[in-house]
Amino acid sequence: MDDVGGIHLCTWAATRxxxxxxxxxxxxxxxxxxxxxxxxxxxxxxxxLSGKCINGTCACDHGWVGDxxxxxxxxxK
Length: 77
Fold this sequence. Notes:
Distance between the termini: 87 Å
Structural class: alpha+beta
Number of helices: 1
Largest sheet: 2 strands, antiparallel
Radius of gyration: 28 Å
Low-confidence stretches: none
Oligomer: single chain
Strand content: 15-25%
Shape: rod-shaped
Mean pLDDT: 82
C-alpha cells in the first residue's frame, strides 16, 4: 500500500522534509536576531554616579557632567 489514511507516502515524506527545512531556518534566524539584540545594548565600563548608562555611555542627570556624571555643574533649580 502506498498510502496511509488517504495521504500518499511520498507526499508525506516531502512535506516532512520541507517542514524540517523551515524549522531549521526559523531556529537559525531566531539565534541570529537574539545575538544581534544582545550586542546592541552595551554596558558602561564604570558606574554612572549621577545618571544612567545608555548604550555604553553615561547620560547625566540635569546639573551633572563628566564621563561618570561625577562633577556638579554649579547651581541649578
